[in-house]
Amino acid sequence: MSPRRVGAGSDAVGRQELPLRITVDGEPVDGIAGQTIAGVMLAADRLAWRRGRTGAPRGVFCGIGVCFDCLVTVGEDRDVRACRRRARDGDVVTTQSRQDANPTPGPEAEPEIPDAPGTEE
Asked: Do residues 96 and 78 touch, judged by C-beta distance below 8 A?
C-alpha cells in the first residue's frame, strides 16, 4: 500500500476531496471525508496515540478492528477503535493510555485462593 494520496485532479474515478477537521488532544488535524480516524492521524504523521502497559507507544496494528491497539476516546465514547470509526468533521478525539484504563491492583485487592481439598494440615 502506498502512503501517497491521489489528488483530485489526477483521480481517474473523479472523486472529490471533501476536507474535514478533527481535534486530537486539543490540536486540529485535517483529513478527508471517508477516512477513518486512524487514517486521518496517520496522514498527519501521528503514528502512535496510545501507550501500552509497559509505556510502549501504540497506534494501528491490524487496521481491521481485530486488535485493540488503536483505541481512542471520541467525544464521550471511550475505547473506540480508530481504524473502524470514520472521522466526522468536528470530532474531538482524546488519546488513551492502558495504564489509565486498567490500573494494576494492589496486594489488598488480590483474591484469596482456597487450599485444594486434601491439603489441610
From this structure: yes
What is the four-CA torsion angle of 76, 80, 83, 86, rounded to 10 degrees? -40
Length of the chain (residues): 121
pLDDT in tens, 27-63: 999 999 999 999 999 999 999 888 878 888 888 888 8
Sign of the CA dihedral with 23 first, then 29, 30, and 34 last: negative
- Look up residue 37 and give its three cell numbers: 480516524
User: Cα separation of 79 and 91, whole Å?
Assistant: 15
Specify whether the CB–CB gap between 93 and 25 falls below 8 A.
yes
Name which of 46, 56, 94 is nearest 74 in CA terms. Answer: 94
The Cα 98–Cα 108 span in angstroms is 21
Which neighbouring-strand residues pair with 31?
20
| Cα 99 from Cα 55, distance rounded (Å) | 8
Amino acid at 70: C
- Please report where in the chains the cell 488535524 appears, as a residue: 29
- Written as one letter, the residue type at 48 is A
